[in-house]
Amino acid sequence: MKLAVVFLSVAGLSECLFKIPLLKGKSVRQTLEERGLWDEHRTKFSYDPTTKFNNRLDTEKEPLTYAPLQTYYGIVSIGNPPQSFKVVFDTGSADFWVPSVYCDSAACNNHAKFNPNMSSTFRSSSIPLYIAYGTGSMTGVLGYDMLMIGDVYVQNQVFGLSETESEYLVYMPYDGILGLAFISDATEDFTPVFNNLVAQGRVSQNLFSFYLTSSEEGSVVILGGTDPAYHSGSIQWIPLSQQQKWQIEMQSIVISENTVACIGSCSAIVDTGTALIVGPTTDINNIYGWVGAYVDQSGDAIVSCSNIDLMPDVIFQINGYTFSLPASAYVYQFGSTCRVGFETGGDFWILGDVFLREYYSVFDRENNMVGFAKAA
């Protein structure tokens, strides 16, 4: 009876916006650099930010990638009584998984683990799960249970319970991943969380939005709508070039009135699960030259911290709109070193958190569009 009362009280909020706070923790790289382990780690585990967007080799393998700079996560709960987990709300993938008590890997032992025996609403399955990362994998099994995200719940949500996790996940500041891409991006037998939110009538609009800040607190993901308090000016809408991976077309990237990258248009994926802005090697190296960055022996693009105020804006021209990033947005500092938030990878672009901190982002599934507005 108590559980039914909770369901009814939450269901009454279905016309409201559901704001889930996002915390900004230390990235894997920050943690390892503080311990003097980063050089060893990056040599042992190569990182390719485009891996998770590669085409699946078959229906059982979903390419993803580990992100050593990713820091944003929110809290969700699974089961009855609820068990809480830190998860990345990732627009670049569609699956939802957390560590489980079935897993004895070091990465699992360093994070919260779901115990199905402690949930009265858990339903098991014999369906195996394999998620391939750039340097390893997560294996597990699928299960079903109630999912709570802030004040909204999803019944019978399928999710992955890990049985093995790769070593490099040990230092991740979050436990698992909650994918917000399309069902076409999901592993077989997965119905993504937001699909179920819509199908069960939990949200009033078939869209969600992100507001990311540079502070430890203040970031949010909003399920079912937008909030003008988080942006200034109107939202500029951009149609998806395909209903997959939140992909759009950019016309060019301009610095000091010169087209320096994405000449003649290019594809870009809007991804909350990628920390930096990723692009083809030639284009990224050209941007480095224009902003005065040099690449050190570790592969990082370095600039003088004292020159940030003198560095040019990087302007993204998309669907007839201009989105400008000042140096204060695309340069980040670790200790006394200032690095440029662009990196090489693949033959397409990824607009990650460096871009999304500057622009409030809306992911409209009903109309297959992405919207950007200047973040408040």
From TrEMBL:
Gene3D superfamilies (alphabetical): 6.10.140.60, Acid Proteases
SUPFAM superfamilies: Acid proteases
Pfam family, one: Asp
Disulfide topology: C103-C108, C262-C266, C305-C338
GO aspect biological process, one term: proteolysis
Residue ranges annotated for the Peptidase A1 domain, each copy included: 72-373
Reported function: Shows particularly broad specificity; although bonds involving phenylalanine and leucine are preferred, many others are also cleaved to some extent.
Protein name (Swiss-Prot/TrEMBL): pepsin A
Species the sequence originates in: Chanos chanos (Milkfish)
Lineage: Eukaryota, Metazoa, Chordata, Craniata, Vertebrata
